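Need tokens for this chain, all 82 residues.
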Amino acid sequence: MATRMYWWGKQLSIGVISLFFLIFGIDLLISIYRLNSPHEFIMGFFAASLIILISAVGLLYPAVRIFTRLRTKNVDEDDSNQ
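Here are the structure tokens for all 82 residues:
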């Protein structure tokens, strides 16, 4: 039971932290368009894009893990009912 709660807590915390950084990256990307220096714009644009990319993967990771776990759980329940 404790390992199950730990697993769900881990997935939830990864998702929440990734969501925070996704929002932060989008806000950073929007604010970068106000810069006047082309060098700062390019550096900031790539930095914000990297933050968004990593946080999107961080959101997909727990989503796929949860989907797989629920799907295999349903398959196991269907097999035991037959």
